[in-house]
Protein 1
Amino acid sequence: MGEVILTMKGIDKTFPGVHALDHVDLEVRRGEVHALMGENGAGKSTLMKVLTGIYTKDAGTITYEGREVEFHSAREAQDAGVVIVHQELNMLGHLTVAQNIFIGREFKKGIRIDDKKMNEEAKKLFDRLHIDIDPMETMSNLTVGKQQMCEIAKAISHEAKVIIFDEPSAALTEAEIEELFKIIRDLRKQQLGIVYISHRMDEIKVITDRVTVMRDGTYVGTLITNECTKNDIINMMVGRVIYEEPKTHSMVPKDAPVVLKVEGLNAGKMVQNVSFELRRGEILGFSGLMGAGRTETARAIFGADPKQSGTIYVNGEKVTISNPEDAVKHGIGYLSEDRKRYGIVVQKTVAENTTLATLKEYLNGIFINKRRENQVTQKYIDSLATKTPGTDQLVVNLSGGNQQKVVIAKWLTRNSDILIFDEPTRGIDVGAKNEIYKLMNKLASEGKSIIMISSEMTEILRMSDRIIVMCEGRITGELDIAEATQENIMNLATREIS
Amino acid sequence: MAESATAAAKKKSSLDKLGGQKFIVLLVIIGLAVFFSVMSPNFRKYTTLVSILDYSYYIVLMSIGVTFPLITGGVDLSIGTGLICYSLVGGYLITFFHFPVWAGMLVSVLFGTAIGCLNGCLVALMDIPPFLVTLCTCMITRGLGATIVGGFGITWPTAAQPGGWFRNIFKISLDARTKIPIGILWVLILVAVMSFVLNHTKVGRYTISIGSNKEAARLSGVNVKAYHVLAYVISGTFAGLAAVAYSAVFSTVQPGTGAGFELEAIGGAIIGGVSASGGAGSVTGSLLGVFVICLLKTGLPFIGLQANWQQIITGLVLIGAVLIDVIKRRREEK
């Protein structure tokens, strides 16, 4: 580790209703890989967006290469040598690899773009990084892993001095992660400062030198990776928040009836020959990497996407589900990972959202019986402990956790007995998370059956009675909670399929 | 891994997706030409060729321009009524204010540029959906043109009148019978220039980038807004050029017409391989696509199918072209 290249001190940032960063510190040295850890919503990405000029800070100082700086755009940060490899890929699918790498700063010959030179330069760059990609290939033809490598190459080609990796391994196979680490070690040798954001404890131990932990938008502390244990880091991350006790054994009675049985489900490339059973009162965790086919499986079961083959039994009876309407009729509810797009109508009130799916029951002739609508809504506000000033509050004004509760209420009004939660706590802050967990456990104990898709290992291990692991569209394993560990789940999730 | 690698290789071999589509469109053009020639002896005449070309100039010019907004993932519906408006205004100044013809032409083109600029600003800076913006300017230009000229048709100078020279830009008359459709030369030059702009300059590269992934382009430091506006400026300017071509080919310009021209230009672009969702397309493809439409429009009457049939058949051809695009994309996603 060399001298300090970047210091962030007392960084503060407030969004309407959320104190996203509360006086956070971070220090990065030349030639170090610095892990930035914290649960979802802890403020890691926000901090990095402040650094790279995507957000403006309310208070605090950033010192880079010895002088105080404030970048006003991603471009300014880039030009100064601070670049970010985004979690979601920022590529232009229609352009070639080389065109992507040099977008915004093309080589020119007169007014003509010099594509030949760009291809050569990209080739040189790849050679230096030992990456084998054809610069003239169209971007959308590459695998996700290769696209990620291109993003990294692009970042490096800016003559970066500080590179931020925002959960780079989320979509990579084990072999690709190895390759990524090789590149990162190379960069460290070249005395770059590297910030590495990840949820995977194992990676942190392997690749990083120091680790800074954030929680709830605050700075918790910085440790030297070699001198601490996984548990030290987890304790810092979880902190005062008391979570639901992690399950050590399944809470489902041995004789609980099977409420949902899926046999040989096929739907495109992402769902291949998927079979499983769900019992009454069970929380069945679906684990796997990004793009493993979990959401696609859920959508196929729910009838949101067409399936090629497969049989579905609800309560022992074979059913046909060809659209979401059929699924709802059979008591299946689906809470999308993307609430804003599929779950709620944000510009409508809590009451309107709650009764959206069952409006027919509130009609007096052609008029809506507002009084009854409000009564029912209030009942669910009480039973789910939704924090809202009233039934007539616009949903857009609620926090993420409370929005999620409105979605849950919507499905409960329909008497859905099988609930599919797709990333139930994504974008929800740490305190509210636990309430969602409590609620899910309560629902399960009342006899609802839950399929929970989650990319968060801790969430899977905390909530599931049983865990199904998927990889590249297939189920690669099934674990009882008593035998499940991060390691054996990860092994199944990255199993290469020959 | 190995599986996906071969999949990528397969895609690459079927590559030059655009080139492939252009080739098909070229075959369709030849096929149509042969078909009509066989079916109707009158179609085989030189005068038919001249009239197809006459008819094609303004649509091709509109189509070159509108290719840019289409590639950004937008659309420009104002070019058809805009064309009539620009032509009326130019002709009005020449007829009633004795502007020299070149000045009238210049006003037509610049008026197009201005409306394009307005479209671009509303779309790119104000973030209003292009469909809405250009639908509004479509109505505005339609009304504006008629209002300015007082509702009467405008006649640009005829070939015999002083200032009639401009009609020779597109068609040189050697004698009463022999006419040389020289306009095709200028149109081809413009196609070549704009094709270069689209494929080999920043303007083109960023136009494609906006259609492909606007946010990614913005994060890479591209001045997305400026290039987004520019796409509509190009479209408007070419509508202005199309107005000049229209004035030169047709004897009078009637206010209130022009609605529907844009559909032929946009349809041509899409037949020629512009992706309906943006991010891909070519100027030469748009040129070829327009010729399919022009051939249908000119050729069908020769085999006894009148205007209504032309529209039905053109519509069907368009659906076919869009389907090809959609199917292609779906296959790529898998």
Note: The radius of gyration of chain A is 24 Å.
Protein 2
Amino acid sequence: MSWTTLAHAFPILLAQAQIFAAPSGAEYMRILPELVLSVFGMIIMVVDPLLDEKRSHKSLGAIGIIGALAALASTYWMAQNPGSAFWNMVRVDGFSIFFHVLVIAIAVVAILSSYEYMAVQRIRAGEYYGLILFGTVGMCLMSSAVELVLIFIALEISSISTYILAGFRRREASSSESSLKYFLLGSFATAFFLYGVAMMFGATGSTNIDAISNALRSGGTPALAYVAMALMFIGLGFKVASAPFHIWTPDVYEGAPAPIVGLMSTGPKAAAFAVLLRVMFEINAPGRFWVIWVSAALSMTLGNVGALVQDNIKRLLAYSSIAHAGYVLVAFAAQPELGTSAVMFYTAAYAAMNVGAFAVVSHFANAGEKYLTLEDYAGLGRRSPMLAATLTFFLMSLIGIPITGGFFGKFYIFSAALKSNLIGLTVIGLVNSAVGAYYYLRVIVSMYMSEPRREVPVMPTPPAMGFAIGLCALATLYLGVLPGRVLDYATQSASQLLHGITVSGSLINYSNNPER
Amino acid sequence: MAIPLSAYLILSGILFTCGVLGFLIKRNIITIFMSIELMLNGVNLSFVAFAAQWHSLSGQIFVFFVMVVAAAEAAVGLAIIIAVYRTRETLNVDQVNLLKL
């Protein structure tokens, strides 16, 4: 065996030697939120059959909320133990903490907004809340995984849970149809992602993101790596609903229960963006620029143009979510240092406003989700002034009007793009924002300026739903008025993500790093 | 005689492409679902081939995970297909068209 092969094999041998050491307590702390969520999810599954069917959803929902809040609290202990765990499969850094807090907060609000919804729709709760928690486990793991095996499993945990959740209005044919479409196209995309992983393994001999990045940096870029990146982008592009992989979005969002749409249009999307950030920037993916450029431009244009002709508010928001995926992708085409923090801020702002908007929609939709067209929203400004006002606020944020989180989100993305000399993409994005304003304003105009054509009952807002909507509105306002703290945190963790790897060539171990 | 790596990769590519074509052309939901499984198996073959080439076990271990996840997906997928059949009484994707595409 020559010296070069020996030198090549040495880090691998070292890594294999670690296998025999049992994981320490600190390593378990690094996946504490996931552990807490799984335990509470399992408690729900076990308790469910013991409960009286009629009252079960209240108590199960309470367990769900307690579990999600406990997980949110446990991110504090996770943050106390930065570093990698389980043989360099999981890494806790500022980046993963950010996405953990975001995703778990989304789950809390989704559970809160489902709390009364389930009774109104007469859905047997059962495993519903458990599935939300399990899905959240997957999304959390996606943000902290640095190993493609774990990324794949986490992606599937979150996807399979959302496939089931999409079909939860079982009596409605549209719901099971939405679930079927989501499932078929989702597994189709997963197969592409997996093929990309196989190609990346073939090109570099490893499935660890650090090792892949080192192999590509030192050994040049084989053609296989380009194929691998393209295939992985197809898989992840589907999960974030970016064009040309967006076809499923309107159908799935229309049929799925509204609070779940709020969850799945933000949670798995944020997690998939986290994976994309790691894959694109930490690996420093070869040949990514034009792929992302085209996909961003297409998503923005197709999303906004598609939304113009929609009459169903869920479909309208679905097309708008395609457009917003496009805005986020603009930041991916920018320089990594500028783009990463803009992506992180935008996913947070988008989560706040979109979950809020879908919470309001799910309340207005009423039993059987009957009232979803724009005509049904006519005159709501008078009949339910508070809710109409908050929906208007969320829609203004989606347009990107100042004092809302959406404004700063767009601002940071487009300024990152301009600083990276992406003039063309910025122009396309700004033109699209103007087009987008039209269809959001259509909803607002319908609420305040048109007369209702048919009788649409408006129920008083139940407490948990009101609380959820209030939380979203507060978060949107906070990000719109005082974006500094969140942005600072995002910038810090972005530089950690990007420089933690480039400075110290080989496998890094944060816990041994004296700076931390 | 040793079979070269490229032979495995070409076969895996053919399997994957068959799966993609089946997904796009077939009209029966169960057949579409089987096409997805075919794609996953094509991927598995290239994992194993690359694992042999790199003398690394991690590719083979990946295959185990893929099989486990495929089984979980099959369980959920068939349940969803049954739910669709109960409401629509058909397994033809062209007739499952309540939501316009």
Note: The first strand of chain A starts at residue 83 and ends at 85.
Protein 3
Amino acid sequence: MNATGWLNWRSLNQEGIVFAIAVVLFIAAAIGLPGFINSNNLVAIVRSVSVLGILALGMAVVIIGRGIDLSAVAIMAMSVAWYLQLLSSGMSDGLAFAYVLAGVLAIGLLNGILVAYAEVPAIFVTLATASFVFGYVRSQLITQDAVPVPPGHWVELLGGLRFLDIPVEVFVFAGLAFAFFLFLRYTKWGRYVYFAGDNPVAARNIGIPVRPMLVLRYVLSALVSLIAGLLTAASLHSINTRIVNSTLLYDIVLVAVIGGIGLSGGRGGVRNVLVGAALIGILLNAMTIIDIPLLYQNLIKAAILLAAIIVDGFINPRDEQTAQQGDI
Amino acid sequence: MSFRERLQSWRYNLVPDHLVGEILSKRWTDNAIPFLALVATLSVFGSIIPGFFKPMSLQESTRQLGEFSLVVTGMTVVMLGGGIDLSVGSIFALSCFSAVFVFFILEQSVWLALAASIATGLLFGAINGYLIGYFRLRAFLTTLVTFIFGRALFDILVTTYAADVQLSDATSDVLDFIGDDTFWGLSVAVWAAIILAIITHVALTRSRPGWHVQAVGGSRRSAHNAGIRVRRTVFMTYVFSGFCASLGGFLIACRLSGAGPGTGLNLEVMALTAAVVGGVSLGGGRGSVIKGLMGAIIVLTMTNGLIRLGYGTGTNQMVLGIMLAVAVTIDIRWLKNRHKVLDEVYVAPVYLKMGATQSAAPGSGTPYELDNRLSEADHIGLGELEGPEDVILDRDDHLYCGTRHGEIVRFFAPDYKHSEVFAHIGGFPLGLAFDKTGNLISCVGAMGLYSVSPEREVKRLSAETSRSWTSIVDDARLRDPNDCDIAPDGRIYFTDSTKRYDAHDWALDSIENRATGRLLVYDPKDASTKTLLDGYRYTNGVCMAHDGKSLFFAESWACRVHRYWLEGPKAGTAECVIRDMPGYPDNINRASDGNYWMAWLGMRTPSFDLSLRHPDMRKRMTRRLPQDEWLFPNINTGGVVKFNEKGGIVEAMGDLSGAAHPMVTSMREHKGYLFVGGILNNRIGRYRIAGADPNWTSPASYWGAKP
């Protein structure tokens, strides 16, 4: 049970440190920055990290199983862009959604099968599929970079939905987080994620269906990306495919890694995602309030991610015994 | 012969199945796939894009290719060392900016701009190398982060200084020359790429640092255990990659006279795809600069070709994604399954109908009839020896034999109770012979022909013969030197049993039954080795006839003995003197009564003879059954056969108990005794021959009485 992050002092430590930093940052921003501590801004913070957090949940499950999914952002943007394009070309909503869902499942399956059965490193598979998904959808299926949501469509209504003045994506994030928590902690397949991530060979030897479970994780990640994409389109009333070339993907990895999910797999959980998302949310919000230009924000985020990876390298050193040749 | 058999013999003896396995076992097949892809790409795009091969068009695209190849060369070196460098695009862009900044804004010389570029690349590479080499971080994520970092920095710098660069009026002939002109018909970028590729190739294949890189990529732990400074080597690969990317960046700065937001964009995915498509392996150890360059040409031709064909935004990414996924998958699967495929297809049996034979069963009344005489032999070195394939005695009656540990062991006369390691050669010493001056000549399985002087000095005489033009497998190398004998003029005649299998895979050779055995001669006068005869089914024992004018050699899997003439009207030709024996012949040696001893390593069985007429069945057998369930020659019974000069069988003896000498690979007569060895035996037998000359010795028979 150590691998859950509850009893593992190492993860707890990093998680604790990050949580403490987040609290300190929060207090400092509350004191130093005018307009930080008001309910609108707080809601804005939570809202801004919701999509990021949802994507990070999918990424977390993949990383815990000793993988990585670099195609998450491409799937998120391109699937929704294709959906909206289909809608604007007059296709019925149900059929369009079925098409997109099938496409997303196919890419998730492709990722999973190449990683699990062809034994290609996850990094390369997902890098290639990301490039392919973006290129294919952009060149063959849609006509321009940004695709707007048709007026009056349920995606647009979703964006305006509020409960207790809190936007709906926050509830979706919370619900998904809880669902992932239940999945990882209390279901058999969820436990398999940890076993396979900790030691895939041993997991296979004790009879866990390691390969089908790997496929499942990539499909899960792809579906989560679709949900995140729909929420993005809902709040912005359009989807801009240029987001694929932005640093959003690295923000997702940042959230997962900085929250304490080791890249070598088998450690971490939903709490780590929440803590990581909190820190990044506060940080981004504070930088926006201080009015740091976007380019400099990228620089700062990259520096933080680098620091996080270095710390991760020290806390979860690579195990020469189970690390395989070519594991890069 | 039935119709079915005739078909089988045509199918399996005329279709060269074995070539498939031989081609697959070649290392250049690794290059063949990317090379074919290269040819296909160039021909497809060359034919559908008008003017693709026009000099002007080539000039412009090769300039870009030069810059790109530089980056790919750096990426190749990093990948060979077991890493990956995704920050090349950022380094490229930042180096480009450094050059632009120094030249246009500081208005310094081009050379200073070059120095600034290279310094930027080295610094960035050193950061990568330090984090990955010394901190042992994951290469992919670390360079991904330094890539974002570098890109963010570059974007900031470009937006800050774009206007200043536009307004600058710095010009230089050198810059224009590097950017626009050609030297001997090729642009500076192409020259730079060619020179760097040659230097890198030579360094990788022929220098210590290059070998270290390949060793670390091949197996990091082994390299560490071998004393290679793994961390420093990894560090250096990233520094080199930074250097290469910075050269590319400088060249594009000269070509475009500026830096824009698009500089180096997507370069890392392109370079990675190029290296992988070219066949540089992920995870290191396999690949070359040439492969990287082939990949570079393929990728650049594809992406540029698609742009020129007018496909829209995103097509490039789509094609790159497909190429990367396919190439990586092929690479991984090929690496993992290559030896399996090879195992599947390498064994390519042929059809052979063995002639009917006489029985060797006790009481059958044939000349081959085996008895139980060898079971009466004394034993020498019982339990101490492993695999005395051949035995020989010197003029002082000491007994020598090879062992499977690669040693030649000497037993001391008169009682042969004490022994010592006479010499250590390695390999598996098989056939033995003494030359005129008392040097012990040995055919060492898997190594070659060796000589051990009485002072125990080991010398290699020959390990290769001339290469035949039509053979795909390298038949210059001696794969399974088996037995040797020495002519009166000092020339050493020896056999190389098979070209297709190593010595320990003799069972596979018997199953395949392809005729690739050779008879060779080594001439000590000029140390040359020549192939005399080729195309026998496992040439084995060799023995000089008593008059020294011809020699006998055994063809094991065909159960035949041939005579090869050294002199006389039939010189240089061979004729079959014994055919269709019931046993598989091994070594042949002289007997005191003017006849010859021949060892049988095993006996023919009706079942295996039948299987030789069913090559398809043997092929299936080697593919589907574990090795210990294969049907192959029965080696649980053997014997010793005496034959005369004409090939007539004089007598045969065996060990029907199977306890002492079930298989016999060699026997040597000495002073009335027969010394018997077996390659799988744990002893040497000594059998008293009734009525033999008690003074006859082999050295005296060959080289005369003691001087």
Note: The domain at 18-343 of chain B is CATH 1.10.3470 (ABC transporter involved in vitamin B12 uptake, BtuC).
Protein 4
Amino acid sequence: MMRLLNSGPARNLRRQIASSRRDFLGSAVRLTLGSTLLGPCGLARAAVFTKRRKIVVITFGGGARDQETFAPEGQINIPHLLRELLPQSTFFTQVVNRGILGHYVATASLATGVYETINNFASLPPEHPTVFEYFRKDLKRPASDAWVVAPSNGFNRIGESDHRSYGRGFGAQVILPKHLLTAALASEHTDYSHLLRDNYETPFYAPELGGNEFELEQLENILKLSVDDFKAHARTLSSPDELSVYIVRQLMQQEAPSLLWVTMHDIDIAHAGAYSLYVEGIRRTDRLCAEVWNLIQSEPEYAGKTTLFILPDFGRDSDEDAGGNGFQHHRTGDSLSRTTWMMALGAGVREGVVIDHLVDSTDLVPTLGAMLSFSPSLAQGKPIPELA
Amino acid sequence: MLPRDLKPEHFTKYPPEARKLITDHLETLRVLPLTYVANLLREAIEYDFRFPVERRELEKELANAGALTPEQKREWFQGFAAIALSAELEKTDWPDRPARFVEQLSAFLWTTHQLDAFRKAALDYADRLSRALPPEPPPVPRLGIAVIGQGVTAYEDPLFYKLRAHGAYFSRVNPDGGLELLLNAIGKRAQDHPIPYRHWYIDGGSAGEHAPELTCVSYQGLATVREALLHRMRPQIDQPGMGPEALRTFLAQVTPEELGLRTGDPILDRFQVKLFTEGSGTQIFSTTFVQWAAREALRRAQPCTMLVRFTPRQRQKPMNELLSEKQDQAELDPVGSLIDADLGAYYNWINQQRLSGEEHSSFLAWFENHSQAVVIGPTIPRGTESRSETNLAQLVAWTG
């Protein structure tokens, strides 16, 4: 313990970076925005009627640091976010996650607005109502109006909590594309069980499934995809997140849900310790975020009435923390691994605005509540004033 | 059970030297908080297999705790004492399985939002301890060497981006006989200062010819150990209800003997097995193995000399290839490995600079068989670049 944490000079450096980094990030982003920066009085998109409004949330996961994304040295990895989406966004430079830094539990916290404490590696529902439950119950929306697409099989219970006032029947439908693919390939003789072992933190472990996951036969009924077409298309894709975006496209075209939550996960390959693969994951996720945005613009059901949120679930350990191993993990709980960014763009969001004040991870759900007019009564966070 | 209840019989399963160390300091441990004691026991239970410098540090830490007055003890350990534990945790067999307890404690601290308080307690304690017991200075100024990029014929992007700011970048280095020269240089240091486990050579492939005084670890040399470990893990993974925590507990109990590792050096054998059982990705990628091995060797053995050579790791196949029915043999990814190694070299330098005598330490990173290198040292101007012709012998000489 002592040896892990004993590094005075390194700690001082970390503190310095922690205190100055937000200013640095804000400056870097403002510099990038340049003449497109319109400030708080800038052009606002036309107000959108709540009833027609749609929300898409993408978690830029799992876990990316500023220095590989929006900090100057990382901007090379996110050309799409930087050049295409940022000028259209309200960008928050300081989003802090004070909860447990495990991907499932952190995403569950984002989705409930409460720092969940469930076992990150167990197949358990969140303890507090999810945004999907508030949305569906308060606004009396059908099950088809709230969906989650998550590449990691451990996320199969994210759609609804076990809270007694909400829970079963009020949640989102969950699609696990990799699980779906494994099921689609089940008739083939090759062993594809490695596809299920997708938790990079524990690469040899595959969680048992349970809950309201999407079944294979629904491929055809809901997504209008034959198993053969699905398999054939999957064979052209390079990663699970690409498969997720393919499913997102089908979902938007066939179901057009008003609340769609997409959890990216390719970046978490970082746990294997190969920096080039981590950066490659960030570049792919950057491209896929732009694809989803373009899809939103091109789909009549979404164009002009959709707000897109993109945010990492959290960061990763800093190079300077002796207790960690740099980008590889998110175990130290240091301020750099807890602090990240968020961009919001589309309907009702001002363009080219950079917000430096602190936003809490749990503020997302109350903000969505304010935008869509539902009451996340048990959420701990507060609506973000610039968006609500 | 709390520390005050500790008795010698709680440590009968400890290896002999660890048992003696703990029972000699039982009085001290009985009055300290559980969160501290369990963490200390996690280190102490491995005492028989620790490197010499680790042993000395542990002995000094225990002696220091014993010498504190009751008032000083309160002051030093108040942060740990303030951590509220559950009765469930206290009831565990923590003296017998301290590593398991620390794992449970970690989960508990996250869940109860006490992680930050624990971090602060640990950092405050570490600061006090390093003031009271300054770390040993190295017997000779440290020298770290990273050799990266084996197998890459051409690479246009800038290398050593993060290291350059701390030293001098050379773009016209004669690469002839470079690896041999570097291995000879570290071999000579080991012969001139023959202290066990203070001079290391870590290779991501097969080890090159080197002086016997060097402590050598190579990825290829451990291929059968890796395979044996994966073979043992598979049935565990397939067991119903097996989760990550249970898997980690299983891995922590794997011994070198069970994996057929018997080099006659139990300390090094244990170290090497831990690289696979505690490291993440070390079982799959040689670049990760090398970086983690260097990190652990620096943290634990505190070497005076270390040469680390990154070699190409296997290529990560994209999903479409994984789905193709025809699975080809593993291919290598030299360019991706170069990018991994470039950052790995930077991490090696950071980890070296965490050790004592950092103001006198030097570091050299070289793109194998190419003309680019960076040198960092007390006499090397920072952020400079040289386009003059030079060679590796000259660069090594400049490290002092």
Note: The longest helix of chain A spans residues 8-33.
